[in-house]
Amino acid sequence: MTSPPTRKPPWLRRRLPLAGGAAGLEAQLSRQGLGTICQEGRCPNRAECFGRGVATFLVMGQVCTRDCGFCAVRSGRPEPLDPGEPERLARQVAAMGLSFVVVTSVTRDDLPDGGAAHLARVVLALRQQCPGLGVELLVPDFRGSREALATVLAAKPQVLAHNLETVARLSPALRPAARYARSLELLARVKQISPAQLSKSGLMLGLGETRQEVLAALGDLRAAGCDLLTLGQYLSPGAQHHPVVEYVPPQAFAEYEQAARRLGFAAVAAGPYVRSSYLAEHYYLQAASTAAPSPGRPGT
Questions:
Q1: In the predicted model, what is the mean pLDDT of residues 174-189?
Q2: Helices marked H in the chain
Q3: What residues contact 115, with CB distance under 8 A and at least 6 apart?
Q4: SS3 label, residue 179
Q5: Rounded to whole angstroms, what are the CA distances from 257 to 127, 229, 266?
Q6: 284: in domain
Q7: Strands 134-138 vs 198-205: parallel, antiparallel or unpaired
Q8: Residue 1: its pLDDT value, please?
Q9: How many domains does the chain have?
Q10: CATH number of the domain that 109 lies in?
Q11: How far apart are CA 117 and CA 92, in angstroms?
């Protein structure tokens, strides 16, 4: 087996300090008691996005009930849900004057519905406070609950996202409490419950997957009706996490993007710095205007 690379290549060297508007936004969110996955997940795009007044909000606390091998979010026993969080988040988004927002959450296996009702209240509060706002909701797998998925879909986010994260072979080690097949089933159920709903998923590359495995995962996602796709470079958050096995060159990302478009994804973001919420509004608008029918579904 090839030894993990010890240095980042030139295309992955980026300065991360926050300054100016970026630092101001982080402080403002902290005062409001609001978290972002940008902070908790140590996103390499954090300074850029905060500088533009853009953030992916993290709800249902900052402690996850799962302990995935790639994730920087803390694992443990979460606090009870904050019933005032949906309205507080909506007020903050309104104050920021955003036209589109991404909301994600920690996984809450301690809750009977996995937090689905709370996530639905978040979307509804955003709609009430911010008429015309676009919402992308990135959800956990709800342990396979169709009822929980139906609850969040009833709130009608513009995009319902759930990340496959990695290829089938690596999934058990990296996502021990999740299931590759269960994630695909959730995405397939999105279209079963709400055929017009745009769905989205993403993969991290550089974890030790092969090209054939990546292409197989893309095929699995399209067979499940997934509309939008993100592909980005995995960067290990720390020594206790899964190591980077390979730094995937930009040309390989471009080739995967072409392959994904041939499969029929309505929008594809692929590149070393791409993350799940990368330019989310741009790719939503692209998908909304060009959404291709999923296999087995008639076109609209």
A1: 97
A2: 21-31, 37-40, 46-51, 85-96, 116-129, 146-154, 171-174, 180-193, 211-223, 250-263, 280-290
A3: 60, 81, 105, 108, 140
A4: coil
A5: 33, 9, 11
A6: yes
A7: unpaired
A8: 47
A9: 1
A10: 3.20.20.70
A11: 21
- Residue 120 phi, psi dihedral angles, 5° rounding: -65, -40
Instruction: Count CB atoms within 10 A of the CB of residue 20.
Output: 10
Which two structure tokens, joined as six digits, stand for 147?
């009822």
Strand order in the sheet with 134-138: 35-36, 56-59, 100-105, 134-138, 159-161, 198-205, 228-233, 267-270
Q: Structure tokens of 24?
A: 């101001």
Query: Using one digit for the tens of pLDDT, what is the confidence trace for 6-44?
Result: 678 888 876 555 444 444 555 555 555 555 444 444 455
In a domain, 40, yes or no: yes
| 94 touches 58 (CB < 8 A) | no
CA 175 to chain centre: 15
Which DSSP state fits 156?
A: -
Q: Which residues pair with 234 in a beta bridge?
A: none
Residue 182 lies in a domain: yes
Give which of 286, 144, 148 is closest to 229, Cα–Cα: 286
Q: Residue 144, by phi and psi: left (phi above 0), alpha (psi -120 to 50) or beta?
A: left
Task: Report whether 125 contacts 86 (CB < 8 A).
Answer: yes
CA distance 48 to 83: 31
The DSSP secondary structure of 246-285, one letter per residue, reads: ----HHHHHHHHHHHHHHT-SEEEESTT--TTTTHHHHHH
**Using CA atoms, how far apart are residues 163 and 210, in angstroms rounded to an integer?**
19
Q: Are 181 and 161 in contact (CB under 8 A)?
A: no
Q: Which domain holds residue 58?
A: 21-290
Beta-carbon count within 10 A of 298 CB: 7
Instruction: Look at strands 267-270 and 63-64 and give their pairing.
Output: unpaired
3-state secondary structure of 182: helix
| Cβ count near 276 (within 10 Å) | 26
- Has residue 14 been placed in a domain? no
Band of pLDDT at residue 97, cut at 50, 70 and 90: confident
